Amino acid sequence: MFVNNTDCQILISTDALKVGNDFPNVDDVIILNPESPEDVLQMGGRAGRKQPYSNPGPRAICYYTQSTMKRANTVLENGKDEQNSSDQNYSRHGKMTVQMAKLILTGCITAELDSQFGNPAEDSRCFCESCLTLPTPTNDNCRCSCCQPETPLPPIPRESACSQRPTRGPMATRVSMDMRDYGSNALRRFRFQIWKKSQSPRLCSLPPAALLHDNTISGIFDVFSQLRSVADLSPYVNGFLQGHEQSLLAEIEELRKKFGRMNIGLDPDESSSLPSNSYDNFFASINAPEKAPTYQSPLSANVEPSPVPKLTIRIPPLAKRKLSNASRPRATAKRSNHTGSSIHRQIAILTSQS
């Protein structure tokens, strides 16, 4: 797949591919924190197996952490390999040898490798059929990064946090967290169905997320209300999803309807349809004030209504008490609220027949 697929530009692998393969289309090899000079040669030797070479030619690029550089300095100062240690860097990467420390801190990588492996400074010319057909190019000058340092790239201007955020719609048109979770699961099922039905060997060798990444799905719901056409979806459609734009738009329109159901507290997966196709009329109908129900007597003309029962409650008269002169004004005001020495109230409660 990697050799015959011209669209595949990057291959991520473990140490299993550092020996035993001759991929002809590997131009660069990037090695993360190699542990020994042998790893540098074996992994870096996977680049440039084809000829003729293109400019700038095959490259082996090694990345080291700052802690690795400090360990290399310590090893050279002590003059011996690292011993067993409880240091976290040691347990993660293994012990560092003097040879590896010299290679990391050398002034010429090519010369140091030749010295450690006993390579001659210049190879004698080979007259075999292969070398005569495709002669090995000779380097007049060493091209390692120590002898020919790369020109530093200009700093990349950072965008402000506001410019990185997508332009979202009004608050009323944004989807809630429940809608976002429901829609994300729906789009994951959508991409899986496309991946399952695909006959492309390229796509079958990749996970379904290659069609529609989770970060892309999150970006879709950030501007969900603005996605109304295929042109609006173009920033979210990669090469694997091309040709399925109409299906994606149909899925988004279906989610829009289901979000409308969720917005009014209905089950989005319920089979029954909403009363209105426009949704606006339906939302207006549910927001209209309810009319008071009119009571219709269940009694027919042949049935006489039964008398309404009455309930009489008698309240005993207030007890009389002697009032002092100090409390008389208050008593006068209190007594003015009542007429007569006793109160009889009759409360009739009308009950309707159920």
Mean pLDDT over the residues: 76
Give the strand order, joined by hyphens, for the main sheet.
1-2
What is the count of β-strands? Answer: 2
The helix content, as a percent range, equals 25-40%
Strand content: under 5%
Poorly predicted parts: 331-354
Cα separation of the termini: 79 Å
Rg value? 43 Å
Shape: elongated
Count of helix runs? 14
Largest sheet: 2 strands, parallel
Order of helices and strands: EHEHHHHHHHHHHHHH
Q: What class would the helix/strand composition place it in?
A: mainly alpha
Care to give the gist of this entry?
The protein is built from 14 helices and 2 strands. By secondary structure, it is mainly α. Helix 1 links the parallel strand 1 and strand 2 (59-63).
Detailed description of the structure:
- The chain has helices at residues 37-44, 66-78, 88-93, 98-105, 109-117, 129-133, 161-164, 177-197, 201-204, 214-222, 230-233, 245-263, 280-287, 328-335, and strands spanning 28-32, 59-63.
- It is mainly α.
- Among the domains are: 15-133, no CATH class; 169-283, no CATH class.
- The protein has a two-stranded parallel ribbon with strand order 1-2.
- α2 (66-78) crosses α4 (98-105), α4 runs antiparallel to α5 and α8 (177-197) packs across α10 (214-222).
Structural descriptors:
354 residues, mainly alpha, two-stranded parallel ribbon, 14 helices, 2 strands, 3% strand, elongated, disordered C terminus
